[in-house]
Amino acid sequence: MLKKYNHILFYIVVIGSFLGLMYWIVQTGKPLEVGKVTVLPTTAASHDILGMFRDAITQSINHPLAILLLQIIAIIITARTFGFLFNKIGQPTVIGEVIAGIFLGPSLMGMWFPEYTAFLFPKTSLPTLQYFSQIGLILFMFVVGMELDLKVLKTKARDAVIISHASIIVPYALGMGLAYFIYEEFAPANINFLSFSLFMGIAMSITAFPVLARILQERGMTKSKLGTIAITCAAADDITAWCILASVIAIVKAGSFTSSVFTIAMALVYVFIMLKVIQPFLKKVGEVYSNKETVSLNIIAIIFGVLLISAYTTEVIGIHALFGAFLAGVIMPPSFSFRKILTDKVEYVALGLLLPLFFAFSGLRTQIGLLNDSHTWMICGAIILIAVVGKFGGSMFAARFVGQSWRDSLAIGALMNTRGLVELIVLNIGYDLGVLTPTVFTMMVLMALITTFMTGPALDLINRFSKEPATDKGKILKQKFKILISFGNPQAGKKMIRIANILSASASTQITALHITPSADTNKFDANEYEKESFKPIRSEANKLGIDIKTVYKASNDVSDEILNSANAGDFNLLIVGAGQSVFQGSFLGKLIGITAKALNPEKLINTIAGKESLLESQTVIDEKIKGFISQSKIPVAIFIDKDFSMPEKIIIPIFSIGDIFLLFYAKRIIKNSNCQLLLIDYNEIINSNSEIKEEITNIENFAPNTVSLSNKKELVFNSLPETSLLISSFEGWKMLEQEQNSGAISSSVLLIRP
Q1: Is residue 485 scored above 80 in pLDDT?
Q2: Domains 74-118+132-463 and 643-754 are alike in CATH topology
Q3: Which residue, 677, 656, 4, 83, is CA-closest to 421?
């Protein structure tokens, strides 16, 4: 105790002494102000103090750094909001983020709230915003280069090259033909026809490899024959298109093809050095430094040095920094673990923070108000039509020519017509080079949005009108008891496999392990390796238990919806998911967010008004995600709350009402598959008075004598349950338990089941 007070006394003495010293220094230094500082009269100074404070705040708000930070905050919030909304209607996030950029620009916010737009995006701040967005693009193109798996080109090289090059040359030629008709009216001054037509051609022929890969992942098509050929075509398309774009940029900057020969020659020398000198060196680096423990800050600095030097070199040569960033990504070591480390360090900063700045900057350049008459809109419609006919048609007929079915050919055409973010990159390059006027830029942005937006609906229509023949496999599987477990953390998945195992009861049970990741968290390059790593603990645990499991891996924009869709569409008898915990749980902020979410959710608001749900209901392990599973699942749902679960010695089931009789079905399955003891808690003293429950208990005792015991709630303290037990409860019973006891202090694992 004395030591504690000594610390306090020391703190007071030291802080007080030095504060006194500082005050003495200030007072001693005041005479030095004479002749240097003009002192205002006391009355004037006190009278204007509020104005001075207001001026200081105004100056701080209008400081370039404050403006930039406010821009970033507004852009990220708007981009994430629109991305989320478009995910909900089945569209790629990039569509929502591009729309968010247009929303913040002169087409919408600038038209409705010009003062707000002028304050948030003053013209003097746009160069800074552009440079930040360019850094984001450089990092993004580096990741895109790493995502390209060049090995896939070897297996389907012939078909992929034919389809890919047909999907480029056809829209390219059509784009140049369109340029012939619109050059006089829409081309900028001092831009020759060659530059304008070449750029219109390349802008028509782009396919967005990253967006296409995400669509394939979200639809579970990555491993299918169609998905393989589509991703291979997109990879070949990406490489070819970027090489053509580099040549086009060289021609535009040089003014003619002849003048661009030197630039192209220098670019070829640069590519040769990157492939033959830098890549072998990086391969050795990847072999030595292949895990997080060995990858030091110096190694990361070397990688970023290669990226920046490559981008700088191509910018100086005259083929744009983005091409250098792309090639730097392509030549990175092929080691999965090494590339995974790099993408983890780069992708979230690039995609989550810097790339939305590019969308906003593109939106600020997009001025839909420039399309102010029917003639201009007709030209815009012609651009969209030619883009679709060239890309969709060229890809489709080429795919059909190399032997693909009509169904797959149509799907390949729809997928290759996806332009997305890569198209915006190309358009912004054209705008910066002065090849595209603001009007043409706006038309092309609309074309990029519409062609990307139509990919999902086009695939749905193709699948709807050309369904594959059904098989009898579903009838055979329906005879089995099918359990679906959905896990996020692989270690949690191991525990859920144990739960599924004790519920299996017989060899006729089929267990499926489902792992879904947000589509932005993985990419095509590492998807297969990521899947292997995610399921390794699960398969290992299944082998220990001697059970066979089926594994399913997917990427999705909405993980919860994908879990529900998989459960509802798979003829499963039970869905098992883990209980998550909100970071806001138990906090005032969490309650405030919960109230706001309910107030904005029509279904929850109706339930609150009807008295089914409290607006001030505290957050528990049954969070909003879990409530979504409970309310929307068409099959029974089990929520697993893990407390270091292993094989249980005792199953404890509290019976709160006659409705809990279904829990005995699961108890019976567990007892058949283990030597567990069953303890039934007659929580409201209804077992002895209900013949139906007593009959079910008798059935259990007939095939497993001396395993069932009865108790009442007064004889059991739930907070002192042994860790080797498993508590199984209905959701209604759990709510009652939460009201009367501290459910969070229960030491045993819990399985909540909704029939």
Answers
A1: yes
A2: no
A3: 83
Looking at residue 754, its amino acid is R
Strand 749-754 with 509-518, pairing: unpaired
**Percentage of the chain surpassing pLDDT 90?**
15
pLDDT in tens, 614-663: 444 444 445 556 666 677 788 888 888 877 777 777 888 888 888 888 88
DSSP reduced 3-state for 573: coil
Domain positions in the chain are 74-118+132-463, 477-581, 643-754
- Whether residue 230 contacts residue 412, with contact meaning beta carbons closer than 8 Å, is answered with yes
Place of tokens 């219109």: 200
Tell whether the model's pLDDT for residue 664 goes beyond 70. yes
Residue pLDDT, tens place only, 48-75? 677 777 888 888 888 888 998 999 999 9
Q: How confident is the model at residue 179 (pLDDT cuts 50, 70, 90)?
A: very high
What predicted TM-score, i.e. pTM, was given to this entire model?
A: 0.70
Do residues 571 and 478 touch, judged by C-beta distance below 8 A?
yes
Task: Give the right CATH number for 477-581 from 3.40.50.620, 3.40.1350.10, 3.40.50.2300, 3.40.50.720.
Answer: 3.40.50.620
CA distances from 129 to 60, 315, 351, 362, 441 (A): 19, 19, 16, 11, 19
CB 322 within 8 A of CB 141: yes
The Cα 236–Cα 246 span in angstroms is 16
Interior/surface letters 205-224, b for 16+ CB within 10 angstroms, e for the rest: bbbbbbbbbbbbbbbbbbee
Tell me how far apart the alpha carbons of residues 18 and 732 are, in angstroms, rounded to a whole number: 62
Least confident interval from 106-115, 580-589, 715-724: 580-589
What angle is formed at CA 87 by the lines to CA 81 and CA 92, rounded to 5 degrees?
105
CA neighbor of 342 nearest in space, from 146, 141, 135: 146
User: What pLDDT score does 492 carry?
Assistant: 79
Residue 187 Ramachandran class (φ > 0 left, ψ -120 to 50 alpha, else beta): beta
Domain covering 74-118+132-463 in this structure, CATH number = 1.20.1530.20
Three-class SS of 249-270: HHHHHHCCHHHHHHHHHHHHHH
| Fold category of 643-754 in CATH | Rossmann fold (3.40.50)
**pLDDT per residue over 263-301, tens digit each?**
888 888 998 999 999 999 888 887 777 666 667 778 888
When pLDDT is cut at 50, 70 and 90, the band that residue 608 belongs to is very low
CA separation for the pair 125, 69 (Å, rounded)? 11
Rounded CA separation 481/478 (Å): 8
| β pairing state of 637-641 and 749-754 | antiparallel
